[in-house]
């Protein structure tokens, strides 16, 4: 339980909540946990979204497929990250995305209406939960705007450089690791896998960057 609490403390919805209050919250919110293996579906396109999920361990991807089967990775989520909150908040009838595990996962679920409505005990923490939920949705909106900036670039190279620049800003370093495989990176950038590999090879030859599997170094412009 202690390890679980430490993870939940990192979750955006429980920011600035004491451990004592968190234990009380989880009981009041009727939170429950489920265990999954790799490639299990946490949320399927078309499902009704009434709960939010918090990743307690492992990782998953939020993906969207068109009618032709083309796959776009919207984002990757890991320990303490949440999913489903925007759709539940917007009262979306059917989920437009699928959430699939990329490793074994433990997930805690909370009914969204229990977060935003006052219970019979009139618990004082609901206001804080709502504030945290609004902050989380705003942060994810900023991330999605960043992805729009990446996808709005015209060429594969421009999209790739925009993505790598985002990683430099995130880590504060020009050497970093990404979690995506080449296929997954192509899906995230909405580009052809072969075109991505060719562009990476060209950029390496031009001494713009270097890479070894999922570790990258981006050299400063001369």
TrEMBL record:
<dbReference type="InterPro" id="IPR012318">
    <property type="entry name" value="HTH_CRP"/>
</dbReference>
<feature type="domain" description="HTH crp-type">
    <location>
        <begin position="154"/>
        <end position="222"/>
    </location>
</feature>
<dbReference type="InterPro" id="IPR036390">
    <property type="entry name" value="WH_DNA-bd_sf"/>
</dbReference>
<keyword id="KW-0238">DNA-binding</keyword>
<dbReference type="Pfam" id="PF13545">
    <property type="entry name" value="HTH_Crp_2"/>
</dbReference>
<protein>
    <submittedName>
        <fullName>Cyclic nucleotide-binding protein</fullName>
    </submittedName>
</protein>
<feature type="domain" description="Cyclic nucleotide-binding">
    <location>
        <begin position="13"/>
        <end position="85"/>
    </location>
</feature>
<dbReference type="GO" id="GO:0006355">
    <property type="term" value="P:regulation of DNA-templated transcription"/>
</dbReference>
<keyword id="KW-0804">Transcription</keyword>
<keyword id="KW-0805">Transcription regulation</keyword>
<dbReference type="InterPro" id="IPR000595">
    <property type="entry name" value="cNMP-bd_dom"/>
</dbReference>
<dbReference type="InterPro" id="IPR018490">
    <property type="entry name" value="cNMP-bd_dom_sf"/>
</dbReference>
<dbReference type="InterPro" id="IPR014710">
    <property type="entry name" value="RmlC-like_jellyroll"/>
</dbReference>
<dbReference type="GO" id="GO:0003677">
    <property type="term" value="F:DNA binding"/>
</dbReference>
<dbReference type="Pfam" id="PF00027">
    <property type="entry name" value="cNMP_binding"/>
</dbReference>
């Amino acid at each position: 339980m202690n390890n679980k609490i430490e993870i939940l403390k990192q979750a955006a919805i429980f920011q600035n909540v004491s451990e004592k209050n968190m234990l009380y919250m989880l009981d009041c919110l009727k939170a429950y946990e489920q265990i999954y293996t790799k490639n299990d579906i946490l949320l399927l396109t078309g499902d009704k979204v009434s709960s939010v999920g918090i990743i307690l361990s492992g990782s998953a991807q939020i993906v969207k497929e068109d009618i032709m089967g083309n796959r776009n990775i919207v984002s990757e989520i890991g320990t303490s990250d949440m999913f489903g909150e925007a759709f539940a908040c917007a009262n979306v009838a059917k989920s437009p995305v699928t959430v699939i595990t990329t490793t074994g996962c433990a997930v805690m679920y909370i009914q969204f209406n229990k977060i935003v409505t006052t219970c019979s005990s009139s618990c004082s923490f609901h206001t804080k939960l709502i504030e945290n939920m609004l902050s989380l949705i705003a942060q994810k909106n900023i991330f999605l705007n960043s992805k729009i900036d990446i996808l709005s670039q015209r060429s594969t190279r421009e999209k790739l450089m925009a993505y790598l620049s985002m990683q430099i800003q995130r880590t504060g370093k020009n050497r970093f690791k990404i979690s995506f495989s080449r296929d997954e990176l192509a899906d995230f950038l909405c580009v052809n896998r072969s075109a991505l590999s060719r562009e990476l090879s060209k950029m390496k030859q031009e001494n713009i960057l270097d890479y070894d599997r999922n570790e990258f170094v981006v050299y400063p412009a001369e």
